[in-house]
């Protein structure tokens, strides 16, 4: 035994499990008087935000929530969503943020799959949550405790679905003395569902260590200073807001909440509150630079944006540069906590023309500082491809900022982590400077407005129409959404159906954003064995996922 192995044990004094919950405690302790949350007329300091989060944690504990219990939330970007990100992990429970664009059946499926015991829901979403809870009860035999949020900034309709109201609940529980976090940093912190190419989505389970490190990585990658003012244009249900609820806490910044992502609201928020940072899919950045110039009047501070969720169009990068917004392109997936790669800018790029800067910034880039590995490999041999900008391989990650695995899906977990690397399914090349550039998506996932759409799920809906003999769905470039689904359809002999009828059929089975924007009645190319050749359809559609 080495001398360094003797009498040098871990103790409570020298080893504490990493958890982003600790960032909240520090900011409340050190910067408690500084602003933490802005939402309409509401204002909370870091001391108040910590207290509200500790009251929520106490209330959830009184309802029986403890280690590894799942709390689902159906919330827009409001103070309650921020507080859920702090309170639920503090109980060592698991946060499940529901996508506000999903349909009732899929919401019910997800809540059943992750065995949610509590639901916190904004009353705006009652029209979809009421049937979701009915399905959950009648088909799955599960009836979670429901806490209704009546947001002061929401004036629309929407009934309360449970017997508990959020603010009343907080008022009736004293705050926990501390937001402690887990004993083991490997414990799950969240489960987030991602669309795949099979019928059911996968539940991505992330841990406290990874969330802590990626929150730090966000700040380091972006050189984000202390006390940033951060606008919530990115939905917090996306990969837990790319870990930025915790990044902002670490930097004692200000969360500027936003219920609606609209150009005027974004630019008004930036102007009014002095916002200097925000994250969004390309479509949101496009809203900003395409907005009337007068909406940007009075914005004099340097505004920095992160873009991810889809490969940003060159027009978007150029457009943001022209209005003076500094954009950082990041790349990642739910399985790596959101962004885990970045098109890290070099000083020499500034000397290049705008076109070349756009090309350089449009790449998926290199690994985050706290991610141990990101490269392009041959998935069969697990050998790295040459850095020649030509040889195709699969993007892979390894390190602490990789998920625990897929909930209740050991086969998919084993396959995705085979060979000691996380297999993204995204096909790319490694350029001479070792920056990664995506060339295709092997999983046929369409990314529309930052949302993943499974082509197979859309095809399944089309196949449920009696007139459809064969169909295939691929991505079509769209100036607003980045990509939208286009469907190629062959009809059964003697059958007749219009494109409008097929779209209406799909609307009855799918969330609105998944419905094909275009139906093309054309012969579908197939191999001699009958396998559909989607690469030919991508070329027809001039899809952004076609090999260049």
From TrEMBL:
Query: Domain AMP-dependent synthetase/ligase, which positions?
Result: 25-407
Q: Which UniProt keywords apply?
A: Fatty acid metabolism, Ligase, Lipid metabolism
Q: Please name the PROSITE patterns in this protein's record.
A: AMP_BINDING
Q: Which residues form a coiled coil?
A: none
UniProt-listed Pfam families: AMP-binding, AMP-binding_C
InterPro entries referenced in this protein's UniProt entry, alphabetically: AMP-bd_C, AMP-bd_C_sf, AMP-binding_CS, AMP-dep_synth/lig_dom, ANL_N_sf
Q: Does the keyword Lipid metabolism apply?
A: yes
Domain AMP-binding enzyme C-terminal residue range list: 457-531
Domain of life of the organism in this record?
A: Bacteria
Q: Does the keyword Disulfide bond apply?
A: no
Sorted alphabetically, which NCBIfam families does this protein's record hold? PRK08162.1
- Identify its protein family: Belongs to the ATP-dependent AMP-binding enzyme family.
Would you tell me the protein name for this molecule? Acyl-CoA synthetase
Q: Which organism is it from?
A: Pseudaquabacterium inlustre
């Amino acid at each position: 035994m080495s001398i360094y192995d003797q009498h040098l044990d871990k103790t409570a004094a020298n080893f504490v499990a990493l958890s982003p919950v600790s960032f909240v405690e520090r900011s409340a302790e050190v910067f408690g008087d500084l602003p933490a949350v802005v939402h309409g007329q509401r204002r909370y300091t870091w001391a108040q935000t910590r207290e509200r989060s500790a009251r929520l944690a106490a209330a959830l504990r009184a309802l029986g929530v403890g280690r590894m219990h799942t709390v689902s939330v159906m919330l827009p970007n409001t103070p309650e969503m921020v507080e859920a990100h702090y309170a639920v992990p503090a109980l060592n429970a698991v946060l499940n943020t529901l996508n506000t664009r999903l349909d009732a059946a899929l919401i019910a499926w997800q809540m059943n799959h992750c065995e949610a015991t509590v639901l916190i829901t904004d009353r705006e979403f009652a029209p979809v949550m009421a049937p979701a809870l009915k399905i959950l009860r009648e088909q799955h035999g599960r009836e979670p405790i429901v806490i209704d949020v009546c947001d002061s900034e929401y004036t629309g309709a929407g009934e309360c679905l449970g017997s508990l109201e959020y603010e009343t609940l907080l008022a009736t529980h004293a705050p926990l003395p501390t937001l402690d976090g887990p004993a083991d940093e490997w414990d799950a912190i969240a489960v987030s569902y991602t669309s795949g190419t099979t019928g059911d989505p996968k539940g991505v389970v992330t841990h406290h260590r990874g969330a802590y490190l990626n929150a730090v990585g966000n700040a380091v990658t972006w050189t984000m200073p202390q006390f940033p003012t951060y606008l919530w244009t990115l939905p917090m249900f996306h990969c837990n807001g790319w870990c930025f609820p915790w990044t902002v806490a670490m930097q004692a910044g200000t969360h500027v909440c936003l219920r609606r992502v609209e150009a005027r609201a974004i630019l008004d928020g930036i102007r009014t509150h002095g916002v200097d940072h925000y994250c969004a899919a390309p479509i949101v950045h496009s809203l900003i630079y395409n907005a009337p110039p007068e909406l940007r009047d009075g914005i004099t501070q340097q505004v920095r944006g992160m873009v991810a969720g889809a490969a940003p169009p060159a027009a978007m990068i150029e457009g943001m540069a022209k209005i003076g917004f500094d954009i950082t392109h990041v790349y990642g997936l739910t399985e790596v906590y959101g962004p885990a790669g970045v098109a890290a800018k070099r000083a020499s790029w500034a000397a290049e023309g705008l076109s070349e800067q756009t090309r350089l910034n449009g790449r998926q880039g290199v690994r985050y500082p706290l991610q141990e590995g990101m490269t392009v490999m041959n998935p069969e041999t697990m050998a790295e491809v040459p850095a020649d900008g030509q040889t195709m391989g699969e993007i892979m990650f390894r390190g602490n900022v990789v998920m625990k695995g897929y909930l209740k899906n050991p086969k998919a977990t084993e396959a995705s982590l085979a060979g000691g690397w996380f297999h993204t399914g995204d096909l790319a090349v490694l350029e001479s400077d070792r920056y990664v550039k995506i060339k295709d998506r092997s999983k046929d996932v369409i990314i529309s407005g930052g949302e993943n759409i499974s082509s197979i799920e859309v095809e399944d809906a089309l196949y449920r129409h009696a007139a459809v003999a064969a169909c295939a769905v691929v991505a079509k470039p769209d100036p607003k959404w980045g990509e939208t689904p286009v469907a190629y359809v062959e009809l059964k002999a003697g059958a007749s159906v219009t494109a409008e009828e097929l779209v209406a059929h799909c609307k009855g089975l799918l969330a609105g954003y998944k419905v094909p924007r275009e139906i093309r009645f054309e012969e579908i190319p197939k191999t001699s064995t009958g396998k559909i050749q989607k690469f030919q359809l991508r070329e027809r559609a001039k899809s952004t996922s076609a090999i260049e």
